[in-house]
């Protein structure tokens, strides 16, 4: 109001040909720009204060980081006054998209979303906090990591809801792809996520092949044995079809249907289908990895279809709220029989006329549970699939359940929550390989490595954590990184430089990047027989400039190679090589190992300087590399 009055006075003075003093004119102009008081004359010697000088310094933040806080209102909730999962998916997608566009500097669209596991529900009146930031940029796509938590304003309690990874694609004019600038991680957490993002990308690319391979190997008769139970509900009774008209409020700032809106519509019809099976209000527990095939625009009609594919009986541990993996069932206490169901849902788009085939936009698979009054999952009716496509969906749901368990308990868990020697088979080979490489990359990215000793060119570092003592030993070698990688990735030649190895037999070549070896080592001082190991060796070439060559090792179990009386079966949790090129002919070779209890005495003796065995072994590794690099060149030239 003060600004308005000043403006009116100034106008009257001008109309009356009254000369306006310069100070008043300046003050009025400043007032029009937002000042509420005339400028104060500075005292002699007083310095002009820099803008923002009174603001407290804040720590540097990732430039792609986006934070969103939303108060859950009644309009956002379901009949239980809990936040609708569809609404949460909208917020997640919005925050992730804004983060991606901060990095790309241009419009971005959702390409895919990895598995999401919802740990808790959120009540009306609580606050949803979402943090999203770009983990890594590839050529035209980038991975965005999203963390979701809730905050209770009355008690001050904070609790994690879920963690998700989304892939976004940058789009230029007319939908052309944009080459993204690289991202440089700064903190330890960012370096870990950056490094493992390449492994997650690799896993997404082989997801379909993993499902097909598992279905090929699964016997048909065992998977359909319960479908004709007396209490089975025909799957057709759960089928839902709904149509939505895409209006301007449903579109993003690029004119395409907002990805979060499509996910919300899909969640709605999936919930209805699940309710038709259980005749209750289900709770969404997980959404499987899915991909957006095509965009849709304002004016499109979206046909959403959902059906219950399968219902499962799970062993449930109180407090967990999710199925437990087969290899943990033997030691799980207080197990209660419960149930979950998988609902398949699809979205198709067409214009005003249906003369052409509808465009397939997206498919997703959602896992629901029905909770009793104490929050425990209830048992569910069995599903009787119709012949043909119904039986195919039924079998695929069983395969996806196994894949979800593998991803959740092998990929997503912390190292200490996964048994050391996980059983290896064709169905979980992708996830064990991921776990093997990502565990080593996480160890490499740790920030608190301390130099323990240095002997000539060999440097030894240690990392002390709550449960593990890890060591790293490194040196620069006159050999190209690719040649060193080729020599060190072959465990059958390790005995040539490592005196602890007696032999390494190739048991199975999983693929070009993963091998399983039976390794025999020397006797330990406190043992009267040699040790043997079943080792999964996973090798990776650099994904982009600056990445190392990686050779990762971890223990697995194979039914064809059980423990034998003449050996003491040993295990390794995480070890391997990382090789960085330093120049055209020089490489930095580093070996990492999380020491197991049986080797702690050996490691600490070397760290303390009471033995030089580890350094001597690494010096022998250098001689091996130098000796064999010329032979390798000759063989490659002959080839």
UniProtKB/TrEMBL annotation:
Residues 35-61 are annotated as: Disordered. Residues 40-50 have a biased composition (Basic and acidic residues). GO terms for molecular function: carboxylic ester hydrolase activity; lipid binding; long-chain fatty acyl-CoA hydrolase activity. Keywords: Fatty acid metabolism, Hydrolase, Lipid metabolism, Repeat, Serine esterase. It comes from the Eukaryota. Residues 62-174, 236-374 form the HotDog ACOT-type domain. SMART domains: START. PROSITE patterns: HOTDOG_ACOT (PS51770), START (PS50848). One of its GO terms (biological process) is fatty acid metabolic process. It catalyses: butanoyl-CoA + H2O = butanoate + CoA + H(+). One of its GO terms (cellular component) is cytosol. Residues 449-608 form the START domain. The keyword Aminoacyl-tRNA synthetase does not apply. Pathway: Lipid metabolism; fatty acid metabolism. Transmembrane segments: none annotated. This is ACO11 thioesterase. The lineage of its organism: Eukaryota, Metazoa, Chordata, Craniata, Vertebrata.
């Amino acid at each position: 109001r003060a600004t308005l009055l000043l403006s009116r006075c100034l106008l009257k003075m001008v109309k009356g040909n009254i000369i306006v003093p310069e100070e008043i004119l300046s003050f009025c102009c400043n007032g029009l720009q937002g000042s509420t008081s005339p400028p104060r004359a500075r005292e002699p010697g007083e310095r002009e204060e820099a803008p923002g000088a009174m603001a407290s310094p804040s720590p540097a933040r990732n430039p792609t980081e986006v934070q969103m806080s939303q108060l859950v209102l009644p309009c956002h909730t379901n009949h239980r006054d809990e936040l609708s999962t569809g609404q949460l998916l909208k917020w997640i997608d919005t925050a992730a998209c804004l983060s991606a566009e901060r990095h790309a500097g241009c419009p971005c669209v959702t390409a895919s979303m990895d598995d999401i596991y919802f740990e808790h529900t959120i009540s009306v009146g609580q606050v949803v906090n979402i943090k999203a930031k770009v983990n890594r940029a590839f050529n035209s796509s980038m991975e965005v990591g999203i963390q979701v938590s809730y905050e209770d304003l009355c008690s001050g309690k904070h609790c994690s809801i879920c963690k998700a990874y989304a892939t976004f694609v940058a789009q230029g004019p007319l939908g052309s792809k944009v080459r993204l600038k690289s991202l440089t991680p700064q903190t330890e957490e960012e370096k870990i996520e950056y490094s493992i993002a390449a492994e997650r990308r690799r896993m997404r690319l082989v997801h379909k092949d993993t499902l097909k391979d598992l279905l090929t190997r699964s016997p048909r008769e065992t998977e359909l044995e319960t479908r004709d139970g007396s209490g089975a509900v025909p799957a057709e009774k759960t089928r839902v079809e709904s149509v939505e008209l895409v209006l301007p409020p449903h579109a993003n700032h690029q004119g395409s249907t907002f990805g979060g809106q499509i996910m919300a519509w899909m969640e709605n019809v999936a919930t209805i289908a699940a309710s038709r099976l259980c005749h209750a209000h289900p709770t969404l527990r997980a959404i499987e990895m899915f991909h957006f095939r095509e965009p849709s625009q304002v004016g499109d009609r979206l046909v959403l279809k959902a059906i219950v594919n399968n219902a499962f009986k799970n062993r449930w541990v109180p407090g967990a709220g999710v199925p437990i993996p087969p290899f943990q069932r033997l030691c799980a206490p207080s197990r209660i029989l419960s149930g979950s169901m998988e609902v398949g849902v699809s979205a198709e788009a067409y214009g005003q006329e249906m003369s052409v085939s509808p465009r397939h936009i997206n498919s997703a698979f959602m896992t629901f549970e029905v909770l009793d009054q104490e929050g425990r999952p209830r048992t569910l009716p069995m599903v009787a699939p119709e012949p043909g496509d119904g039986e195919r969906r039924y079998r695929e749901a069983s395969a996806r359940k196994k894949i979800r368990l593998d991803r959740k308990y092998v990929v997503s868990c912390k190292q200490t929550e996964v048994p050391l020697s996980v059983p290896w088979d064709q169905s979980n080979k992708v996830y064990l390989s991921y776990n093997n490489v990502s565990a080593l990359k996480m160890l490499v990215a740790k920030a608190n490595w301390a130099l323990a000793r240095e002997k000539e060119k060999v440097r030894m570092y240690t990392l002390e954590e709550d449960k593990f003592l890890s060591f790293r030993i490194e040196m620069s070698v006159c050999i190209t990184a690719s040649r060193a990688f080729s020599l060190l990735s072959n465990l059958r030649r390790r005995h040539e430089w490592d005196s602890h190895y007696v032999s390494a037999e190739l048991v199975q070549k999983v693929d070009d990047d993963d091998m399983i070896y039976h390794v025999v080592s020397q006797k330990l001082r406190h043992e009267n027989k040699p040790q043997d190991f079943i080792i999964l060796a996973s090798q990776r070439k650099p994904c982009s400039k600056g990445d190392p060559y990686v050779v990762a090792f971890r223990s697995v179990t194979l039914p064809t190679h059980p423990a034998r009386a003449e050996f003491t079966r040993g295990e390794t949790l995480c070890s391997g090589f990382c090789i960085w090129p330093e120049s055209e002919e020089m490489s930095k070779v580093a070996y990492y190992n999380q020491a197991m209890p049986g080797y702690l005495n050996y490691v600490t003796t070397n760290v303390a300087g009471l033995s030089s065995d580890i350094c001597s072994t690494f010096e022998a590794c250098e001689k091996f590399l130098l000796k064999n690099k010329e032979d390798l060149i000759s063989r490659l030239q002959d080839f």
